[in-house]
Amino acid sequence: MHANSATEAAVNSDAAEKVASAKSAFALTAFLVLALGALYFPELSGRAHYFMSDHCFYFQPFLHYMGERLRQGELPLWNPYLYCGMSQIAVPSPGVFYPFTWLFALDYSQALALFMLCHQVIAGLGAFLLISSFRWGLAPAVLGAIAFAFCGYMFSLVINFTLPASAAWLPLLLWSLRSIATAEEAKRPHRVHQYTLIAAISWAMMIACGRPEISIPGSILAGSVMLIGWKQAIKNGALKWQIAVIVIAGLLNAPVVLPVVEWMRLSPRAHGLNLSQVMMWSACWYDWLCMVFVQPFGDLQELGNAFLPLVTTRPVFLPYVTSAYVGPFVATLAIWGLMDTTWRKRWLVAALLAISVVMTVGEYWPIAPFLVTHITVLSVFRYPIKWIIFPLLCLAICAARGLYCIERTAVNKWAVLLTASLWLVANLAGMAFLQAAKLNKSFPGVGVTLPPPAEMALALALLTGCALGIIACVMQQLPVRGYLSAKYTTRLYIVFAAATMLFCAARTAQMTTPENFFDHKPFLLGVWNQMRKEHPGPDRLLSFLFDPLHTPSDYEMSPGAPWTPSFYQYTREVLLPNTSVASDVPQTFGYEAAETGFYRAAVFDALHASAISLFARKDGDKKEVTGDLPLYRLCEATATHWLSTQEHKDDEAIPLLEADCFKKVFEDKKKNIRLYEVKDTMPRAYFTPYWKWIYDQSAVSDAVADAYDSNFDPACDTWINRKSTSGVVTQHIAADPYAPGLPNAPDKAVNDPQSPDADGARFLNYVPATVMVDQPEHVSISVIAKSPGFVVLTDHFYPGWQALVDGVPKLTYKCNLESRAVYVGPGSHLIEFNYEPDSLKTGLLLASIGGLFLLFLLGSALTPWTVRSLKRLAGQS
User: What's the whole-model pTM score?
Assistant: First the structure.
């Protein structure tokens, strides 16, 4: 009887603890939603709009296109507007298959604010659950959740929002992996299935965000958590479920990963990036300073900030992460937690902290450059500053432990002495900067000399932060001296920590504009539409603009508008790639998307050979100007009909392109824009009875670069790569691995013998074909061929494009730079190109298998609830 009562009491106690934990998690979630909703209210309500940097140049154009397709009920697999077409599913960020991306069917800024709010809530809830599993109590778990969800990384990277989104899933993943082992040891199979389900979804979401810089180190960290307890996991049977998590997450991510892997083999990164490109944004002294003190130098992403050269080795680049702020309270508590000698696993957190700091420092410490130099695959992880989220996670956990020590009034006295000393030293430094600023004397810094205004800004930030740090140290004495209970003291720490982080987030919020920035119709778009009516031809445009752009000094987005939004709107006025995507303007090139390495190199070789490029660089390069023929050949091979440049730079007129190849059709000196029509441009689709077999694609790029000496002219002959094919190979095709069943290249006349010109005129060996259907993933072409030959479509040759000739599968060959060619016989033909990549088909099949596993886990996890519900319906208690 007594034993039964004890068992019942234990069960009731366990149930009560679960209810209390659920209520705490719900209350925390409500607080996070309310606080973040207040901060993001201007964007959520449509009163403010994001526009800066990657919003303008990268995310908004792609998400506009993806949102339009999603609203039409279509998956945006292929993007026809950049690089003569590019795979959209090969772009990992923003990812087509990441569910939260679908929010962008809404207005961009509203969707982005909602996206950020959701992920910061996920980050906070995950951190709360993770720290709760350490059994440190409610207050430490709440503090850790707030420290991670409200850290500067989460707020400042709204400009590159898929990074914090990926990091947001990590605490939830770590918690669920730990919980699997706990539930299995307690012999609770339904709980095991619940945690396995959560872990698999969390891991899949972290990867699907498309940021390997976060997901791969995060996966290594998750794997390490499993390895630490592998013996116990084998003993209690949890290991099989942890392995199941890895398998299910991998299956679910197959549609995301396989197209990206397919592209990576062709991308510029496949051949490795140099060390400077990889280490471009490393965490410097200012980044670490901003972890504790509110950005002393203000918003460094605002154009014209005079302090920018003081804190970056590359002044022309804006900072990648403007703030990693956690504040003096979290920093103080983190030191106390890390110095708690009763915390046996602190060395694991300390090791993660040390490793992540060393990697985040990047070029400022020799270890990361050494590793990247000797392990070239690490070059994929560009910009070490992105990894600063891992030190922040460690600080959140250590701060929670520090608050746990306060609850027990067991803070290490040496830890208190250390933090108090650090704050006093920082305070003295602030006073020194203040005095130097008042005396108008420059202070020698680390590699830079700080001018008086910078000294004053640093002084104010240091003195304010130090005052808060000293308060944090003093508050620790309240329960020790009996002034306040430990319970209420911990609540004060939580309030102060949350208030300082929210204040920093509000004060340093990214600049927005009250006007709907992306509704403005670009100036060049109107010009381009008018020119197309007057000069019919292919629609493709090559924006040959300079970096940095020479923006008219009197340009204003609207009367009285600040310079920063005016500059970014000007970039859209001139249809700078990728801004053209949102205006449905197809471009020959692009910026930071699914480009291929060969095509990128060929384009830059042609551009750099032109007189304009040499004029624009002004880098002391004495290379002889080769003229604009290589640029013209590039335009021919890609069916580029329009080319835009600026009219002047640094008050110096930019040379005109050669009149033999390019016709100037528009110029506006005030807007600083010039538009050319490419003379005698090639059609987008054509038939040619003459071709030349090649076996190395570099032959084409070399011929374009050496256009004056080579005999390459797409209008005269088409160069077909006999080794480069894609598509379906049917059983009846001959066994020749290269161009099976096709004849050798025919002889042809390059010059017209009837021409009165002594040298002969070009003999144009092509016949324009008719594009019947032009959709992103399907293009059909009609042609009447009088002899055997190739039908050429000057869209991007890419794996996954399948060709049908009169309904019969045929091989597609890469031709000229990266166009597509299909062999046809004499007569009328219908040629169809369909983008049906095997990588996607295989990925969807694997994801379906993963989905079945998820359904099984979901059914098992809901079984107890389902049984209880059925019993209630049946009238059973």
Answer: 0.90
